[in-house]
Protein: Carboxypeptidase C (Cathepsin A)
Organism: Phyllobacterium ifriqiyense
Amino acid sequence: MHYRLCGLTLAVFLSACSGGSDSEPEKAPSSFTPQVTVPKIDAPTPGSAVFSYGPEDGISRSSVSEEPASKSQKITVKGIPVQFTASAGHLISTGSIPIETGLNYRDVDAAIFYTAYTRDDLPKENRPVTFVFNGGPGGASAALDLGFLGPKSYDDDASDKAKTLLWKDNPNTILDKTDLVFVDPVGTGYSEAIWPNKNEDFWGVDSDAKVLRSFITRYINANNRQSSPKYIYGVSYGGFRVPIIAQLLIEKGESGYLPDPSKKPAKVLSGLILNSPILDINSDCSSRYVSCHGVLPTYAMVKAFHDKSVEKPDFDLPAFLGDARLFAVTFNNLYKSVFKSVDQKISDRSQWNIYLQKPESEVFLNRLYKITGIGKLYKLGEGADSNPWIANPNMDSREFVKRFSPQETLQMNDGRYFLEKDTVDPVVDRTDVNYDHIKSYLAGFADYKAKSRYLGSNGKIILHWNYMPDQHLSVTGDRFASAIPDLTFDVTLNPNLKVLIQHGYYDLNTPFHKTEVDIENANLSSRIPIKTYLGGHGIGPGKTDGYEKVLAELDAFYDQPAVVKLAAFNAALPEARNP
């Protein structure tokens, strides 16, 4: 497999510019040795620990409280009062890191921070609980809580006038359908490794999944949710980590949970929701020398938006996308037979130059021009200096956003918008205003008063992330930089597992059709529905046209009592069917 120059530093992953914390954590003494059992300690006050987020950082177990802070709350969702408890705190994950090369395991791994919203007035055996993960790797969960899936949002305009945040009930929360647990991976939020472990010990595809699987199991056991339906929700790289976490949970089965005090049987895992996922990095042409056919329908939708075609009354979206998908097939076939060698690290243009002298090259290149708006109509004999498609027809998203408009640069996360002058693309500088507000929000809403700053995006993690898979896992297939084998394992080993994938048409970061192709190539198309929307990366309220469709399809997903049959799922919402 050949890599592009950027290697694994993909646009899809967070690359924030800084990490660290306001002060140093309590470090273990130099004479510290690994403990075989968790020592008995006097529990510190919740929020009193001070966390640090660098690769070599770790915190003493004795400084972290497992007692959550909590408050009773009430909001109104769809006109119905909802009473619940907001909680925030840490749980210590256990048993995921081997000692040296032996088979024994350390008893403590990391302090994982979470924010939970639970309906305590409903029977737990029927009440779902959903664990929510952001992407990156390096992103914390607050961006998916405030104003997104969680119970509260705020009015920007009113807050500006009042000079303070004015919180309001979030009409888009899914708390009416499921309890919610927002989880911060190691090195983000308020999560840190426990000595003698270091943060970077958990910065890899499988070490990350193992420690988060351990957290989920501990949360379930600590809160007696063994018999509850369980879901995992992931955005962007979160959609990559979720199938791996699921594989670990499914393989462990009921043995991972303590007996339910009610003696009801445990439910291992009910469903997965993957929002704007990247499932296979190896098929991403922004980081590998592979065909870019998976992003062509996104280019078409971006052009259609900017030339106002989407707004026309006679715009037939299903037909438009069907045509774009068919052209993607033609493109991929020509890539394999004619211009694949143009795109390699050591370029060979001989076959491509021969093709450019044939009349059919005009048809192909002019279709590329019309579907993308980049370049110009091609005539036989023209040189590469006059048309970018002649130089290399396999244009990736990074090149597309630069070439689409001579005066402006498109945003990778949402091709409907241009970058403001002298600003960094949000896909690289993943700052989020919610990361600034979460500390005060937690103090007021859940009574969690933290000494540390909340690290929303840790740019150091992407530089240390390890994509080498754990060869001891039972999943078959090539797992390097791919979660497809894990996803296949999940739905094979658990035939009742529900899976929903969501994508935005204008997302140049994780293109919707690339996922369609990945799922089709894995023979999962009849098993896993992919829902698409008029939005960008990370389908969320405020940035997705017709967000009520998203909510309706989430409702239908949670309401499905057993395995999602694709035809049945679509039939449940005929007015919201995808093209």
Q: What stands out?
A: The two ends are 34 Å apart (CA to CA). Residues 5-41, 99-105, 573-579 have pLDDT under 50 and may be disordered.
